[in-house]
């Protein structure tokens, strides 16, 4: 009887392997399809890279105040950058685009704490009204052809953390590194999988773990590129992680 069970389990395991391979292939395809274009963002006539720092500070504070999931933040920035890769954004609408990206990402990733348009109006000091939010949301969805979902950096973090790390401190540090990277144009077109693996390896190194993953050439370059940015970070981000460390 036991032999029969083992025999019957073999094709199930094989089917699971095939299924997982299909999932990995789909994730890789979606990762490439939803990658922002740094060169096109560079060509924005009114949006300057120095403005990104202030918008990211604003979005991180909003994300934290609404108690949204980590995945929502990464998807928010992905939507923001993808839209900026396709459309010219007036300076006056950059914050509106950020808010709408947060709203769409929250609807996609969070079930309970989705901010209302009224709440978003309030945190923008009523700079934008309800109709402007609705119009921008419709425009973003149409420009992105309703392709909202993508395998975010957070998604890959969770995958890679199960491959050898079970320490909360490594997850905490790796996510911090990934959020630091959001501020810098150098990493806008970095694949989420590359960013996640490099960050996990770097976090493991900081905590003296010897079992951090082997990195390929691009992942190693990403790890080295991240190092200079980890010691001069946004005060908002520093405050966020200081708060978490004592909560």
Task: Identify the notable features of this structure and list them briefly.
mainly alpha, Cyclin A, domain 1, 0% strand, disordered N terminus
Mind explaining what this structure looks like?
Helices cover 67% and strands 0% of the residues. It is globular. α5 (94-109) crosses α7, α8 packs antiparallel against α9 and α9 packs across α10. Residues 1-6 have low confidence and may be disordered. It has helices at 2-33, 38-42, 49-65, 70-84, 94-109, 117-123, 130-143, 153-161, 168-182, 192-206, 217-226, 235-245. It folds into 2 domains: 38-143, Orthogonal Bundle (Cyclin A, domain 1); 153-245, Cyclin A, domain 1. The chain is mainly α. The longest helix is centred in the first third of the chain and has 32 residues, at 2-33.
Radius of gyration: 20 Å
As for the number of domains, it is: 2
Strand residues, percent: under 5%
Dominant shape: globular
CATH superfamily of the largest domain: Cyclin-like
| Overall mean confidence score, pLDDT | 89
Low-confidence stretches: 1-6
CATH architecture of the largest domain: Orthogonal Bundle
Output the CATH topology of the largest domain. Answer: Cyclin A, domain 1
| Helicity, as a percent range | 55-70%
Q: Between the first and last Cα atoms, what is the distance in angstroms? A: 53 Å
In DSSP terms (H or I, runs of 4 or more residues), the helix count works out at: 12
């Amino acid at each position: 009887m036991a032999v029969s069970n083992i025999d019957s389990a073999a094709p199930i395991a094989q089917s699971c392997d095939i299924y997982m391979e299909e999932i990995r292939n789909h994730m890789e395809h979606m990762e490439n399809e939803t990658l922002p274009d740094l060169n096109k963002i560079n060509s924005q006539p009114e949006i300057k890279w120095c403005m990104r720092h202030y918008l990211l500070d604003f979005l991180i504070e909003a994300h934290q105040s609404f108690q949204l999931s980590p995945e929502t933040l990464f998807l928010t920035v992905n939507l923001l950058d993808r839209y900026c890769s396709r459309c010219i954004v007036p300076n006056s609408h950059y914050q509106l685009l950020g808010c709408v990206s947060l709203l769409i990402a929250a609807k996609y990733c969070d079930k309970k704490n989705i901010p209302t348009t009224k709440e978003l109006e309030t945190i923008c000091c009523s700079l934008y009204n309800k109709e402007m939010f609705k119009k921008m949301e419709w425009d973003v969805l149409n420009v992105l052809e309703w392709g909202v979902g993508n395998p975010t950096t957070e998604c890959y973090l969770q995958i890679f953390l199960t491959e050898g790390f079970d320490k909360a401190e490594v997850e905490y540090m790796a996510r911090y590194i990934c959020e630091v990277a959001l501020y810098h144009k150098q990493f806008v077109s970095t694949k989420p999988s590359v960013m996640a693996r490099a960050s996990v390896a770097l976090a493991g190194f900081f905590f003296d773990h010897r079992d951090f993953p082997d990195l390929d050439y691009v992942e190693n370059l990403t790890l080295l590129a991240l190092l200079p940015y980890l010691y001069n970070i946004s005060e908002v981000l520093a405050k966020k992680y200081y708060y978490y460390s004592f909560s």
